[in-house]
Design brief:
Helices cover 46% and strands 14% of the residues. It contains 13 helices and eight strands. Helix 6 runs parallel beside helix 7. It has an eight-stranded parallel β-sheet with strand order 1-2-3-4-5-6-7-8, with helices on both faces. Bound molecules: zinc ion.
């Protein structure tokens, strides 16, 4: 039994941080994999579900291991038909399950083109097509796509992704991101020019950082990339000066509680409580997200219920958080138009 809460009134929700690679229902992924004729390591559906979900914190020990799971989902989504269906299903699923009416999804098109075998424009157009089809079915929804650069890609490849984001701006691409497995050799600063170009063209900027590892990366992102939002960013809760700077610049954090607990970026609920209360006390704006509801066996309502259930959030906090997410959405800000 869950306590009565503001969630019982089925408020309209906003999800800002969901990877297409982690947001498609396993049954759909199974069907897409077979449609594509992909050789999977198992012929059993339940083993497949185990393969592409993070059911327990013991399953992954860190972010690098979590990223390995994405290799499967990205392989399965590596064709125009597969990308179109994936995006289409994520949007409808979000509305039906959680009454999400503002949804941003992110993906790296270059991790879905079979290393150049498939044409990047076909992959991106397919994602947009999937989005358009779903929005026809759910006209109360708004949705946008964020193209992700990668921390393991050289600057030249990431530059191509930004160029594509610029080309498809106005057609459903609303922002850019940098994500992917941790890479000590990666320089955020080197990407400042690319990020500036995207911003000047009206695209939203969100950057994965401050999830685990060193807070120095997050400093680099805040100082040189000045993003609108940061994917995760929880590490700044341990750095007063950084929190001050983030708050002053109005950078909104996209916190993903269950994801952080499952990848061990956050050890336990008391640490989660400490982080969120510290951020709030320092005026750092943050939102609640899933990161990838299907892969992490969660959804946005469950994320809010987790915080309510542990007394980390009150009803008023949930309401405020929903509003912060709505206001911080690139769709609300007219990015990519
Ligand atoms: Zn993420």
């Amino acid at each position: 039994m869950t306590e009565p809460s503001v969630l019982d009134d089925r408020p309209e929700l906003t999800e800002l941080h969901a990877h297409v690679g982690g947001a498609v229902n396993p049954a759909i992924m199974w069907s897409v994999a077979h449609q594509q004729g992909i050789r999977l390591p198992t012929k059993d559906y339940w083993q497949f579900v185990e393969l592409i979900t993070v059911s327990h914190p013991d399953k992954v020990n860190n972010l690098a291991e979590y990223d390995l799971i994405f290799r499967w989902t990205e392989l399965i989504q590596s064709s125009p038909v597969a990308v179109e269906r994936s995006v289409y299903e994520v949007i409808g699923g979000a509305y039906r399950k959680c009454n999400i009416t503002t949804l941003e999804m992110r993906f790296n098109p270059m991790k879905r083109n079979r290393e150049g075998e498939k044409d990047l424009d076909h992959i991106i157009s397919a994602a947009i097509r999937g989005q358009d089809r779903a929005l026809l079915e759910y006209p109360l929804m708004r949705a946008g796509l964020i193209l992700m650069m990668d921390r393991t890609f050289p600057l030249e490849l990431n530059a191509i992704i930004v160029e594509k984001a610029l080309r498809y701006r106005g057609r459903g691409i609303v922002g850019i991101d940098i994500a992917g497995p941790p890479n000590p050799a990666f320089s955020y600063r080197e990407h400042a020019g690319l990020v500036a170009r995207a911003r000047e063209a009206g695209l939203g900027v969100t950057i994965h950082t401050g999830e685990e590892g060193s807070v120095a990366d997050m400093w680099e992102v805040v100082e040189y990339l000045t993003p609108d939002r940061i994917g995760h960013g929880i590490l700044c809760a341990y750095d007063e000066r950084l929190m001050e700077l983030v708050a002053r610049r109005g950078i909104v954090l996209e916190v993903c509680p269950t994801s952080n607990l499952r990848t061990r970026a956050i050890e336990d609920v008391p640490q989660l409580r400490h982080i969120l209360t510290t951020l709030r006390a320092h005026g750092v704006p943050f939102t609640i997200n899933t990161d990838g509801p299907e892969m992490l066996l969660t959804d946005l309502i469950r994320e809010y219920r987790l915080l309510l259930g542990h007394g980390i959030f009150t009803d008023a906090d949930v309401r405020a958080s929903i509003q912060t997410a709505y206001d911080a959405s690139f769709l609300t800000r007219g990015c990519g138009q």
